[in-house]
Amino acid sequence: MANKIIIVGxxxxxxxxxxxxxxxxxxxDITLFDKGEHVAFSTCGMPYYIGGVVENRDHLLVSSDxxxxxxxxxxxxxxxxxxxxxENQKITYQDSSGxxxxxxxxxxxxxxxxxxxxxxxxxxxxRTFTLHDIPDMxxxxxxxxxxxxxxxxxxxxxxxxxxxxxxxxxxxxxCTIIDRNKQVMKLVDEDQxxxxxxxxxxxxxxxxxxxxxxxFSNNGATLNLTDGESVQADMTIMAVGIKPNTKxxxxxxxxxxxxxxxxxxxxxxxxxxxxxxxxxxxxxxxLLTGAPRHVALAGPAHRQAFILVNHxxxxxxxxxxxxxxxxxKVFDLSAGATGLNKAxxxxxxxxxxxxxxxxxxxAGYYPGAEKISLKVLFDAENGRMYGAQAxxxxxxxxxxxxxxxAMKANMTVFDLPELELGYAPxxxxxxxxINVLGYKAESMLES
Length: 447
Prior knowledge:
With 447 residues, the chain is of the alpha/beta class. Helices cover 27% and strands 28% of the residues. Strand 22 and strand 23 (292-293) form a beta hairpin.
């Protein structure tokens, strides 16, 4: 049966949903509204365009016209959905010609999230930027080309902050990172973060932790900090996190979860069964504990798109939950984590043990071996793995992938020594670091 399906928002969530619906449904009327000009683009690639690693801006974009033509979608860009009337199944939207209304059979919300940009006294918007979409990226690139800044203050030491420091450094800009926490990158535990901090300092990045921004002065070129000190910067990047875009959903009466994101069930349905939601705007449950989580990552958004469309077309495959596997690069170092870290486990009151292992990425006699650090957090009774972390210059991505897969398969630390992983001197050791990590964890439970 043909439906009128309206999708609000594109990128990894909405654009993916539109494409998947059309593959098996040639008859339904699909309209995708996006308040921006670009429906599909690589958010994760933007820092690398600014750093010159990605040389062509167009390589980050997917043509809206091509999407519309390929999948037979009525694509409305620069159009903002302003309200939902669930009772009458209609939406109100605003475009250049004014305000309009249209009806739907099924509504899919993929409004994403917005970069937080707190207001501070003295802030100059002409030299203070966020990085969350293509206009943000273009504004930063334009400022660097025209104003040729020599210094930059980065407020926040998460994904965007650390990726931007590397890429601004590549443009010859001296960077200072300011973060109110006692460590960079809260994704990992403090001991793992210390290795990232040492690497940043070795790259001549100024690191000011347990400090915060209080105000600006000098036309926005001076950042006054909470400890009374100040930082001079030609430009500032605000990388203090994101906020899910939930206003339209909340105003329409849809349930909002305790994380502040839209609450959905295992099939990505909101509290209204004819309205689905996915991506950076939704709250899902943790894969391991079932606790509510808001995790904004591209991989889970793609999986949620499959679950949503499968259910919309009569399937019943549930979303298993969020694992939160993430990895990032900062200069020559890679770092990643999967599952829960110590802070999250402590908050949940879970009894756990931890074990770490520092070793080389491959056989020490083979040239190029680099130091790596692996860590696993596991149940103090049965060895079930709650989280794993990895930091180093080489082989971090594959070790993180192994741990994420093992956790997804409900393996315990007792299974890690049993894993038969590929070995040759350029890649590993006969007893892979993952195996050794398992042996160490196993001995802790058996003693």
